[in-house]
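Bug #2210: token dump truncated for HTH-type transcriptional regulator YybE?
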Amino acid sequence: MELTQLEYFLTVARLQHMTMASKALNITQPALSHAIAKLETELGVPLFERNGRNVELNRYGKMFGRWVETALNNIQNGIQEIEEWSNPETGVIHISYLNILGVDLVPSMVRDYQVQYPQVRFELYQGDHGDIDEYLDKGTADMMITSRETTLDNHEWIVIRKLPLFIVVSADHPFASRSSLSLFELSGEPFVGLKKNCGLKATITSRFQHTNFELASTYDAEDLITVAGFIKAGLGVSVLPQTLGLMLDGLVWIPIQEEGWDWEVGLKWRKDRYLSPAAKRFIEYMDTASK
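Reproduced locally. Full output below:
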């Protein structure tokens, strides 16, 4: 059964005349008659009472017609909804992001974009690195906001923010009065690390590998706010970005003397996945805004 057969059927039912219906549909009358006959064969019942060129729905035709009208209306509504969701002016953008970025970066990003495109809507999904990666791979999210080190070969990537990393200690730590610190001075200090599902983990691991210096974690926390809490309690030191969600009383943020200690946060999406015009426009906007 084809969609055109159903459209032909409703046109014949409305006009009750095969020749008039064929002209309205811009097809030949024999082609229309064949399409209706094929539909009746598929259903196993006649749909019309025929009187020459004039036709009238029988009880089977009336029954079927109600369902066909509903089905075609639903299809049209589906087409319209897809248009609204994908339209760059009115569409919906699906983004997954790391929990810590929901305090400052993501809200400000959404606000600024909606100033320019007020009818665009966002569907947001947050979690740890494993969660947001799954949202992207399953197609729930169009893109994700994460760190560069988590990108794979089938990913596209643009940087949207560089966040400087700091050595963070408690207010009563001996290093608290220092204006800057070398990472090598942390040797022997209890270090509060991160478990692998935290998005910053890969960045910090990569930076330490480049310095040929290793720190043994005394604690491995699930998320950055927990790291900050452990530092505040005097249980160790760590390396963190200075974001709003981590600015706890009792913490001291000390600049790192070595260069290159930044957390690059950006948009990541899959090369092999369809992106709606709304999603593409958002990526272009963020790429331009970050330059």
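Output looks complete on our side. The mean pLDDT is 87. Marking as cannot-reproduce; reopen if the truncation happens again.
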